[in-house]
Design a protein that fits this description.
294 residues; alpha/beta; Rossmann fold; eleven-stranded mixed β-sheet; 7 helices
Amino acid sequence: MASWHIGIIGGSGLSQGLGLDDAQEIGVSSAFGEPSGPVTMGTLAGVRVTFIARHGAWHRIAAGHVNYRANIDVLKRCGVTDVLALSAIGSLREDLPPGHFVAVDQIIDRTVGRAHTFFDAGVTAHVGLAEPVCARLTGLAADAAERAGAVVHRGGCYVAIEGPRFSTRAESRLFRQGGGDVIGMTAMPEAALAREAELPYAVLGMVTDYDAWREGEPPVEASAILDVMRANGALARAAVQHFAAALPPQRAESPIDRALDAAVLTPVAHWSSEAKARLGAVAGRYLRAAGNEA
């Protein structure tokens, strides 16, 4: 059993932070380039929390240009044990109206051109992602949002698109037909990278719009999305506070904590010194275990 250290990745609605106790803003370097900005470390309900704004200060980084690898690497370097991502999402279903929350349980990746893996420097790993989020963390997040007063839908398939543009009506209908429930631009490669870093990951999405599939409706606009996010920002912050307060006193181990054990194909003896240094945070446990077994 160990202590919790929660990493929070916040979208636009949390750009002003979470009101952490004993908050301290720290710049952390990554072996994978520049993260979106400094992290803010502190506590909520006595739980250690590290927050990073996904899009940087004043939403200056579009989804397709976020350095997801650096953000996850930085959280791992800070000692985070689990990651809760909060995001604005569009609805692909009539019964998921703006203002509701969705605890995502599946993801369809339609992004292109993003760095999707940490293992690209002479080391090969294939993590399993059949279940792309942590069920334990997702349940805790859904419970917390309900306690905060939100209407929460437990389960939903998130279609991750490249952006920064919104969908055409034809694309939106296609995503509905393909099994999508909600749509956004950030869950991938974030979820996959968190798994490679052996970090349990959950997505709590706030529905801001109906995307473009509804006939006779005006198209979605960024200004309308921001209006919903501002109106519900306090609710999202309250959900995070309830989440921290309801965590069990001690953190039981998750199978995701050892996701690399069955994923890495390249023997550590054949990792270059550069690869070991580059992967020293995200694969640190795996490297230490391999060293002990050598």
